[in-house]
Design brief:
This protein is an alpha+beta fold. The chain is about 30% helix and about 35% strand. The chain has one domain (about 5-130): Pnp Oxidase, Chain A. The protein has helices at about 5-15, 70-75, 100-110, 115-120, and strands at about 20, 25-35, 40-45, 50, 55, 80-85, 85-95, 125-130. Strand 4 and strand 5 (about 55) form a beta hairpin. The two termini are about 25 Å apart.
Amino acid sequence: MLFGEEHVRRYQETDGEVGHEWEGTVTLLLTTVGRRSGKERTTPLIYQPEGDAYVVVASKGGADDHPAWYKNLQANPEVKVQVKGDKFTARARTATPEEKPSLWRKMTSVWPQYDEYQQKTSRDIPVVVLERV
């Protein structure tokens, strides 16, 4: 998580005036329902728009296991998204093998570290498409 709970809280309080821009890129807030707890969990993630959708990467810094938020959306793909002051429900899906190369390039253009993360793990890092419903 980028800078964790404080990032989420300030982003929510200011409609993204604080927290949307981060480390030279932009972030959104993704809220999933915990697959075991049933509780909502909100995570700040680097994103890029893709048509009417948004794209995020389940990198977990190149760890060998998927991030919890990705496991949660696999169990329940209906999520909440906040981009600045725009709050909406979305359906999350993993990019298809055909979509992934161009989406990966789009994401590494704003956060080159994703390539380093992929080199650190044998896990195929998923690219996730968040489609407004």
